[in-house]
Amino acid sequence: EYDHHHAFLMQFIRTGERRWYFLGEKAAHHAIDVDTCHYGPRLGGEWIHSMGHTGGYFTQQYEGNGIPGGGFTPSHTWTEGFCDWYFVSGDYTASANAALVADHYDGAYLNNYDFSNSRDNGWHLLLTMAAYRATNDPYYLNAARIIVERTIERATPGDKPGTFAGWHRQMVPGHCLDFPRHRGEANFMLGVLANGLEQYYRDVPDPRVAQAIIGGAKQAVAEMWVPECDGFRYTSCPNMKGYTANNDMTAEVLFFSYR
Q: Which residues contact 237 (CB under 8 A, 6 or more apart)?
């Protein structure tokens, strides 16, 4: 599902072992040639959780794996690996694909922009900032600004003016099974958003962005930390007991807030 070619190339750079380079090459070409839509009105979208890669090959879910019809969402879309592969290999199809994907979401998609959970805008920021860093084109930085403005607008106000208390939405089954649903967020989604906001902050040091990330860290600690497990509950739902995971992704918001 995720940006595997990015991970393989980072490992190649860290170790110098050629096997990671070749694994990154295979993963990058698969993501470029198969997992990206290259034709039709959804040009530039990346298929999510799709059986047969592009979906539509099956009429029902098979063995619990994948979505029969497929679909598109920025919360399952990446460009960092395409940019990495281009910088390492010089393969022009990678940089062209990064632009294709970023342009899919950074144009008309941003009209009256909104998001449902924090990984929607988090991964959208990450894919957009990767495109900006690769091109230095202010078009992408402006797209990121639109996402950030809506993200800050929807942040929960903190106790003091200019501060925030994270992001709260009515959670869905899987994140909360109670009725009425609890309001809050999933821990890894907070981590993804914190990483996206941090990348934006590196180029645009807006103090509101820093305060928003700090608010997310306080939300994670107040709503998800489980002392008995030394870990974070999966979501803000207090009845999500016995399940702590994605602590590495949650740590991102803590590390940035501490710095």
A: 171, 175, 176, 177, 178, 182, 184
